[in-house]
Design goal:
The protein is mainly alpha-helical. It has a domain at 26-140: Winged helix-like DNA-binding domain superfamily/Winged helix DNA-binding domain (Arc Repressor Mutant, subunit A). The chain has helices spanning 14-17, 21-24, 28-59, 63-74, 82-88, 93-105, 127-147, 154-171, and strands at residues 79-81, 109-113, 121-125. Helix 4 crosses helix 7 (127-147) and helix 5 (82-88) packs across helix 6 (93-105). The longest helix has 32 residues, at 28-59.
């Protein structure tokens, strides 16, 4: 899903926030913060569009399918409850259900009933799904390097990780575990 890369003036108007743009954007610091927001969104949209196109062209595989296969492959026994998978890949349950339907028809995943809770269902990666994932993985890693990592030195990576972790910690509900936000040395 693409995100907007700008904030229209009407969103910042006195009708929507109780002031005018001059009242809201009063310092150079505020300008820099808004510019960083726009740069974040533009960068994300640009990179994801390119990576999606490359995955489709090279593997005939939507990037969201790759993401689901990667989450399932890294899970215990290659299986996740549908609700847990939806949260992991940032999709609604209904959106994931439709996606898993298509992936199941392609032979990449199967659904298995949950033994502990008859209402629950597991999505399970198949052998064909594993083969598809491992075939696509080198190209995906190359895309990450080509479109993102090559531009960062170790200091940039540390700063970016620090900032994004700070935002995630600030925005996560208190009841969610904070230690599992981002893996990596900080």
């Amino acid at each position: 899903m693409l995100m907007p890369t700008y904030l229209p003036e009407q969103l910042l108007s006195s009708q929507s926030v109780g002031g005018n743009i001059a009242d809201i954007m009063t310092t150079a610091s505020d300008d820099q913060k808004l510019a960083s927001w726009r740069a974040f969104l533009l960068t994300y949209n640009t990179i994801m569009r390119r990576m999606e196109q490359e995955m489709q062209d090279e593997q005939d595989l939507p990037l969201t399918w790759y993401d689901i296969l990667a989450h399932l492959d890294s899970a215990h026994r290659g299986a996740l409850r549908m609700q847990e998978l939806a949260e992991s890949v940032l999709l609604s349950r209904s959106g994931l259900t439709r996606l898993v339907d298509r992936m199941e028809r392609a032979g990449l995943v199967e659904r298995h009933p949950c033994e502990e809770d008859r209402r629950g269902t597991y999505a399970v990666i198949t052998n064909r799904g594993e083969e598809t994932l491992f075939q696509a993985m080198p190209g995906h890693i190359n895309s990450i390097n080509q479109h993102f990592l090559q531009y960062l030195d170790v200091f940039d990576a540390q700063a970016l990780l620090r900032v994004l972790t700070k935002v995630l910690v600030g925005e996560r509900p208190a009841e969610e575990p904070q230690a599992e936000l981002i893996e990596g040395d900080q």
